[in-house]
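User:
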Amino acid sequence: MAQKVRATVRPLLVRPGARYTCFGDGLCCTDIHGLGPLTKRELTQIRRIDREGGEYNDDFEDYMLRTAADGGCIFQMPDQRCSVHANHGAEAKPEGCMRFPLGLVATPEGGRITTEHRCPCRTLGDRPELTAEAALPSLLDPAGRPSADDRVKKVKLSAKHKVSFARYREIEDGLLDELAKGADPAEVLEAKPFPKLHKTKWVREALELIDSRDGTAFGAALGWFGDTILKLVDGREPRPPGRPWAAAFDRAEARPGEPRTSREVFNDWIADELWSLGWNDERTLEMARVELATRLAIAQDICERLERLGLRADRSAAEAVTIVELVGESDFWKEIVERM
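Assistant: Predicted structure:
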């Protein structure tokens, strides 16, 4: 009888080359995303600190941290640090705040520690190597055990071809190795961006993204994303919105450390997208490569425009990655991917 494959969180695994520590740049405490949701226990704990610290949000249909007039968390201090953390300790923060931008995926080989890149503490300036020991406190559940965001036992290469995790690792190792060597990420993905969409067109979807702007930082990201699609598929002259997250990147750029090239930033991001396996639930590796190639093309164009504005290359790439990762996590983009 074949041995049953189990997905486990031990040992903890860090992708070689991943670098991160929290410097308190503050971007994750703004309206680039929803500040929550809060569990009942977290809501009670937050309301002990501030009676109005958490509230029901109709847009998210859940309890969330309350925001200030600028859209950021009410607990964010002028120096961008968290007042809950500063005054009550890290354990007083909601799990989502403790965890971001880290994640944990259980696999047959152990728990892969993942990182999201819409965080300048992850993408820009001097950042020490990520270690399992440093990440572990952020990955624990209330009982003190590592908590997986997802579990992966097998991987879908294509619609008709599912393979063992070990076989996927052989494929992934080759991709990660090429990215680490500095290869062109578009060539590593070997996928054509902007595939034909089912029952819609890229221009129509781009216009809908632009029309969805709501005055938030996330809305600005939608505007940049849609504007760039129009340029790349229809040749329209871009008129992007402003950059509401510029202050967080100013702080990150001011940290010491050798600047990176834009390719290094993009390769690091693509490597983490593959490593996270977040695509495996709803997509095949084949489709993940097409989807990533499309967002990469958008990010590279945004990066080039930001460089022409005088921004440093690695900062331009980091801001571009923030935009495409933000939108990539949204329902707007997921609906487009379903039509690819």
